Amino acid sequence: MIKRTLTGLAASGLAALSMAALAEGDAAAGRTAAETCLGCHAVETYFNVYPTYHVPKVGGQSAAYIEAALKGYRDGSRKHDTMNANAANLTDQDIANIAAFFASQGR
Ligand code: HEC
Asked: For a Cys staple, 78 with which of 46, 47, 72, 103, CB 3.0–4.6 Å?
């Protein structure tokens, strides 16, 4: 009985910890992780050279929006060759960090 209660407590403690870890992106780590992204997403005019297509501005977007977009590109539910390739190797923590970084920009 006591053992079961302790196990339950430990399990809920772990769940709370991992939820906090997911919610809290580290913007400084995200700045480093976003280095490759900035070549496209930090350009003033938000167009690339060829073929000419619009690159959306992600600085100042909400972290939740960026996180959802990146997870969509990573799992393929949102299709765009460039972004599918860019998101393919990101971990949940990378995405949280990158989202925190971009959300802190451009305001
Ligand atoms: C080669 C250029 C390029 C690189 C590098 C790049 N992106 Fe993108 N990104 C784009 C384009 C183009 C789109 C628009 C795709 C679409 O229409 O779905 C986009 C879309 C996005 C979106 C969705 C924006 C919206 O308004 O819905 C997010 C978020 C994003 N990129 C984040 C990133 C992150 C984070 C990285 C680095 C890991 C990255 N991108 C690297 C070109 C790039």
From this structure: 72
